[in-house]
Amino acid sequence: MRKELQDFIAKAERFLKSAEHLFEVGDYDSCASRAYYAMFFMAEAALMLKGLSASSHRGVISLFGKHFVQAGIFEPELGRALRRAYDVRLTGDYAVGITVSREEAEDLLKAAHEFVGKVQAYLEREAESHD
């Protein structure tokens, strides 16, 4: 597997661990942000494998949906989870007077684990077939 892809995976895993810690200490806004970014980096890695990139978060989400969900590589729920994570992350990072709830953070953390695991398995399979 290319080093660049390995770096994206390592960063996603690190962010996922940070999200878990932030959840444990009750910082649900920051948990949501780190969980989203774990998913975002995995989506970027998948796009990179296909020679694609985007200049914005919404662009990454859109391209992931088009090239991986609509193409049948991943189930629609994975695309929905990424879009939802983006929305929750915006609340956690930018909203004042509104916070991410414990339940939202917990759901997002579960979704991030699933997303990272499935995309990582895909990347490993694809990298093997190209080596």
Provide a descriptive summary of the structure in words.
The protein is mostly helical and 131 residues long. It has a single domain (3-130), classed as Up-down Bundle (Four Helix Bundle (Hemerythrin (Met), subunit A)), CATH 1.20.120. It is built from 5 helices and no strands. The chain has helices at residues 3-24, 28-49, 57-69, 76-94, 102-130. Helix 2 (28-49) crosses helix 3. The longest helix has 29 residues, at 102-130. The N and C termini lie close together (7 Å). The model has no long low-confidence stretch (mean pLDDT 95).
Fold blueprint:
Layout: H1 3-24, H2 28-49, H3 57-69, H4 76-94, H5 102-130
Helix pairs in contact: 1-2, 1-5, 2-3, 2-4, 2-5, 3-4, 4-5
CATH homologous superfamily?
Nucleotidyltransferases  domain 2
**Helix content range:** over 70%
Amount of beta strand: under 5%
CATH topology: Four Helix Bundle (Hemerythrin (Met), subunit A)
Task: Describe the structure concisely for a colleague.
The chain has helices at 3-24, 28-49, 57-69, 76-94, 102-130. It is mostly helical and 131 residues long. It has one domain (3-130): Four Helix Bundle (Hemerythrin (Met), subunit A).
